[in-house]
Amino acid sequence: MATLSLGKDDLPTIKLKSEDDLVVSPFLGIEKGAVLQECRIFNDLHLKLRKCVDALVRLLYLVGQGEKLSSSEATEVFFSITKLFQSNEPTLRRLVYLSIKELAGAADEVIIVTNCLMKDVNSREDMYRANATRVLCRITDSQMVSQIERYLKQEIVDRNPVVASAALVSGQHLLLHNKGDVVRRWISEITQALEHPSPMVQYHALALLYQIRQHDRLAVSKLVQGLARSGIRSAFACCLLIRCILRIIGETSSNENINEYRPFFEFIESCLRHPSDMVVCEAARAIISVPGISREEVKKTVTIVNSHLLRRSSVVRHAALRILNKATYLYPNQQWFDPFDFEDFLHDKNRAITTLAIATVLRGAREQTIEGFLKKIQSKFMELPDEFRVQIVEAVHSLVLKYPNSYYSLLNFLGSSLREEGGFDFKRAVVDAYFSLLNEIPQSKEICLTHLCEFIEDCEHPFLSARILHLLGQEGPKMSQPGKYIRYIYNRIILENAAVRAAAVSSLARFLDENSTSKTRKAIVVLLKQCLHDSDDEVRDRASYFLHQCQRITDEENSLIKIDEGEEPVSSPTTIKEFPHLPYSLPELEGNLVDYLKREDFNEEFNVVNVPKAEKGFEAAEQIPMTSVPVKAEEANMNTDNWGNVSLAPSQVKEMPSWRDSNSRLSEIEELASLGIPLKTSSSVELTEPETEYNVTYVKHTYRQCIVLEFIIVSTLEDQILENVHIITDLSSIEGLQLVKNIPVSLLKYGSPQHAFVVLQRLEGFYPIGDAPCEVRYVVKEMIPSTGEVDERGFDEEYKLEDLSFGISDYMVPLQQSNARFKDIWDKFGSQNEVRETFALSMHQSIPSALNAVRDFLGMTVVEGAQVSPYATQHVSLFGGSLVTEADFILVVCYAEFVKENEAVILNLTVRSEDLNVSELVCSAIA
Amino acid sequence: MLSSIWEQLLSWLKSLFFEQEMELAVLGLQNAGKTTLVNLFATGTFTEDRIPTVGFNLRKVRKGGVTLKVWDLGGQQRFRSMWERYCRGVNVIVFVLDAVDKERFHTAKLELLEILQRPSLANIPLLFLANKSDLPGALVNPQEIIQTFDLKSIKDREVAVYSVSAKNRTNIDTVLRWLIVHNKKPANVNNQMSNGV
């Protein structure tokens, strides 16, 4: 009822609002299909200009909003746009240019407009010329470039600045996309463009020239020298020049060389007196970052920068502040300014400046002044938006690490910020700071924990609560008064949601360690027993698990007492581990358990031995670094979907049970038992589309000399039985594999899965890689499902399956080495057994997916660098694995560097092993 | 009978008020002289243009009250797959042949048949021009051309064959007249072979 009335009250206000801002986007509700349909009018015999313009604008809006067109859609619409070249209307032509640029990436055969664009490049309209040049360079490919080069070269020296700049910028574009070998031949034209009266052209010419020559240090310094002497008009070019000089200086390390660059340095100094603030700031920034520069120089520069702090433009103020910030960072022991000068900044209307000012002061503050300053900013701090507060919290954090002795006042500051209103990111930053301080400054532990305990009393973020509870479980028992924390934790059990309650139960159980007194122990047992009545499964499960553990420990103690009668009771060395580290792969374990429950035969105990052991690689990847989210390990077991990333995909669960105890099945079959236990079993692969007549999946068991393919076949046809079901594979295209044995299924009935096997022998020294066509052959007999009557006249039938594929991962066993040894192995193999290769993984848009694919492909363990953010642009992982040979294993280690580039991931892979041939084999397998 | 007179009257009236517009797609192997021919249509002068067309050219030509919109398509291998996109909906497909380059007759024939069998281009009349008739050794006899390119086998559209020379302006006016006349009468499928010399 209450909600209903609330809704009624809300209604009029909403209406009012929409009346107030009547400005509705003209693009509201634009939809891809409709726009593509609309674009068909471009093909009409008589063009309706107005409509074409509208359609193009909508298309551009869509693409600009990030709508993805498929290749065929883009090509279709691109070709209809090319027909618009028949109109010479400038507005339309401009939109055509823009659209072609947007579609150039997705559409095929964009080269078709080359001729039309070349015509525009040669036209008299400067607007056409400049724009067409830019588009032309976008759509051209490395073969075509030589055909358009002539025009570009002419344009660079064109009188019109817009045209010249367009050609210069296009040159940069060509270079960036590796189409620009011709650009290197334009040096004389570009040098000529440097003299162009327009500053813009000068800037672009300098940028291009530098881009061409950046790897030739001598050429760059000559260029810089010439320009520094002759002076430059463009402020942008000036800034660019300063950056070039800084790079040259940065590349020379010793002091003598710096003298060699004295004239450059003088140029930068002269820039400090440049009329443009931008150049001054750039110069100042450069000077303070020159390595080994004298204090006087820095001081002089900082004075100039300080004068810019009073400029009206907030951009300049911000830039100046950033330079000061950098100065305090680079020369921390120097006082570059008086903190009290900064009071003005606290009232600056630009919040970014306020934040930066505070962070700068904090960074450069002396120990004595910190407390006073913190008090001063406290009120201002509360007014700032979260993202800025995060920055300040980080500054405070680094300050504590710098002055560990004044942690008390800083922690007070953090504590009060925890009590403030704030979003998740802000709170997390504060909590992160606490976590790190706790480890860095042991004496602060008590206060930190107290602050965090108070925080979870009123925390609306279950994620943070769970993290803190985990920490309390870890640290609490070691503190002087564990009882205090138990109270806080138990409060959570009463008041929070299921995810937090479960975390709290685990945390509570951690207090049952060897140091706990019997009184605490009893108290905890009582508390845990209450949790047995919780409404949530997970909470109850955890509670009963820990109670059971506790019971066991008590029993053991009792028995110990019995044995050592008369002596002091010995405290048991057994402690409750939150969850013992299971050697099983969790999805398999869950699959088995689900299976067990389904059978409903509880007389027989669940046998954990049947669960396949996890591959180490799997675990390494699941391990989560402590610093980021220590509670993840719990989450994985909690099976709540609060955090999205909880362990199991449903499809996995579904198919897992059928692969259960495949090892024991292998040993049941006489022919296979003699092979022993497989070194490795791959994950299962489906060979049929879902919902077809037959479902076939298979796994590969790797042995030293052979591979056993195990197929599970399920028939979904009720009115058939199949006999003599066997798998036929065609190995002709794979060298080094021989069929040894084929074990068919003698009878396959509807719905009951059966196993067929194919044993393949691997010839010595071969590691066969490739795809093998495969089909299943059988004798079909009709059956009437209701009576079970079988028509004895069977007929032969075959059913085509997906190809089987063999890869290097089938011969690779994951490495079981600790991190420390990777480097030793790496050095031991040495560079003589090294193979290095670069791959473009265009199928992968992000580094994590590429990393997982490479790991699966190689079948190796990620020794280091398993975790990577999906937004990372660079990442390094170390892989390790053992290649199976007839008698032994060959150790292989890889150093993989992932770089994200455009839409693809580039992989630089370096492989080392005992044997160069093996390194080459691994490397070539990826290609 | 009456209705056809009525229609003619209507189209005549239309032509008074609206400008007639006609779309052509000119295709053929590279170096057949497509761009040169189109330039000749447009400007009336012969220029020996040796730069290959990268992609396509678009020319608008006014002739005898008709505006010809001409898609002059590049003849290089990589552009041939795109011909079809520009042929859709045109009034006439013009195929230009280098009548001297006998070695590539076979390729030209294959490309022509390939493009004509596209369902989207069914019924569009074909104008087959054997260019460069001024050069010695050129294939100029229309009957021979029809035989070499098996043009009789094209049943689903109107086909016209002319031997032309852009350089000497042989037959150019005839072709233009054919095109203009062709626009005025409604296209009917009767598999007529009109041959010019």
Automatic annotation (TrEMBL), chain A:
<comment type="subunit">
    <text>Oligomeric complex.</text>
</comment>
<dbReference type="GO" id="GO:0006891">
    <property type="term" value="P:intra-Golgi vesicle-mediated transport"/>
</dbReference>
<dbReference type="Pfam" id="PF16381">
    <property type="entry name" value="Coatomer_g_Cpla"/>
</dbReference>
<dbReference type="GO" id="GO:0006888">
    <property type="term" value="P:endoplasmic reticulum to Golgi vesicle-mediated transport"/>
</dbReference>
<dbReference type="InterPro" id="IPR013040">
    <property type="entry name" value="Coatomer_gsu_app_Ig-like_dom"/>
</dbReference>
<dbReference type="Pfam" id="PF01602">
    <property type="entry name" value="Adaptin_N"/>
</dbReference>
<dbReference type="InterPro" id="IPR012295">
    <property type="entry name" value="TBP_dom_sf"/>
</dbReference>
<dbReference type="InterPro" id="IPR037067">
    <property type="entry name" value="Coatomer_gsu_app_sf"/>
</dbReference>
<keyword id="KW-0813">Transport</keyword>
<comment type="function">
    <text>The coatomer is a cytosolic protein complex that binds to dilysine motifs and reversibly associates with Golgi non-clathrin-coated vesicles, which further mediate biosynthetic protein transport from the ER, via the Golgi up to the trans Golgi network. Coatomer complex is required for budding from Golgi membranes, and is essential for the retrograde Golgi-to-ER transport of dilysine-tagged proteins.</text>
</comment>
<dbReference type="GO" id="GO:0009306">
    <property type="term" value="P:protein secretion"/>
</dbReference>
<dbReference type="InterPro" id="IPR017106">
    <property type="entry name" value="Coatomer_gsu"/>
</dbReference>
<dbReference type="GO" id="GO:0000139">
    <property type="term" value="C:Golgi membrane"/>
</dbReference>
<dbReference type="InterPro" id="IPR032154">
    <property type="entry name" value="Coatomer_g_Cpla"/>
</dbReference>
<dbReference type="Pfam" id="PF08752">
    <property type="entry name" value="COP-gamma_platf"/>
</dbReference>
<dbReference type="GO" id="GO:0005198">
    <property type="term" value="F:structural molecule activity"/>
</dbReference>
<dbReference type="GO" id="GO:0005793">
    <property type="term" value="C:endoplasmic reticulum-Golgi intermediate compartment"/>
</dbReference>
<feature type="domain" description="Coatomer gamma subunit appendage Ig-like subdomain">
    <location>
        <begin position="663"/>
        <end position="805"/>
    </location>
</feature>
<keyword id="KW-0968">Cytoplasmic vesicle</keyword>
<dbReference type="GO" id="GO:0006886">
    <property type="term" value="P:intracellular protein transport"/>
</dbReference>
<keyword id="KW-0931">ER-Golgi transport</keyword>
<dbReference type="GO" id="GO:0005783">
    <property type="term" value="C:endoplasmic reticulum"/>
</dbReference>
TrEMBL record, chain B:
<dbReference type="GO" id="GO:0046872">
    <property type="term" value="F:metal ion binding"/>
</dbReference>
<feature type="binding site">
    <location>
        <position position="35"/>
    </location>
    <ligand>
        <name>Mg(2+)</name>
    </ligand>
</feature>
<keyword id="KW-0460">Magnesium</keyword>
<dbReference type="InterPro" id="IPR006689">
    <property type="entry name" value="Small_GTPase_ARF/SAR"/>
</dbReference>
<keyword id="KW-0342">GTP-binding</keyword>
<dbReference type="InterPro" id="IPR005225">
    <property type="entry name" value="Small_GTP-bd"/>
</dbReference>
<dbReference type="GO" id="GO:0003924">
    <property type="term" value="F:GTPase activity"/>
</dbReference>
<feature type="binding site">
    <location>
        <begin position="131"/>
        <end position="134"/>
    </location>
    <ligand>
        <name>GTP</name>
    </ligand>
</feature>
<dbReference type="InterPro" id="IPR044154">
    <property type="entry name" value="Arl8a/8b"/>
</dbReference>
<dbReference type="InterPro" id="IPR027417">
    <property type="entry name" value="P-loop_NTPase"/>
</dbReference>
<dbReference type="GO" id="GO:0005525">
    <property type="term" value="F:GTP binding"/>
</dbReference>
<dbReference type="GO" id="GO:0015031">
    <property type="term" value="P:protein transport"/>
</dbReference>
<dbReference type="Pfam" id="PF00025">
    <property type="entry name" value="Arf"/>
</dbReference>
<feature type="binding site">
    <location>
        <position position="53"/>
    </location>
    <ligand>
        <name>Mg(2+)</name>
    </ligand>
</feature>
<keyword id="KW-0479">Metal-binding</keyword>
<protein>
    <submittedName>
        <fullName>ADP-ribosylation factor isoform 1</fullName>
    </submittedName>
</protein>
<feature type="binding site">
    <location>
        <begin position="28"/>
        <end position="35"/>
    </location>
    <ligand>
        <name>GTP</name>
    </ligand>
</feature>
<feature type="binding site">
    <location>
        <position position="75"/>
    </location>
    <ligand>
        <name>GTP</name>
    </ligand>
</feature>
<keyword id="KW-0547">Nucleotide-binding</keyword>
<comment type="similarity">
    <text>Belongs to the small GTPase superfamily. Arf family.</text>
</comment>
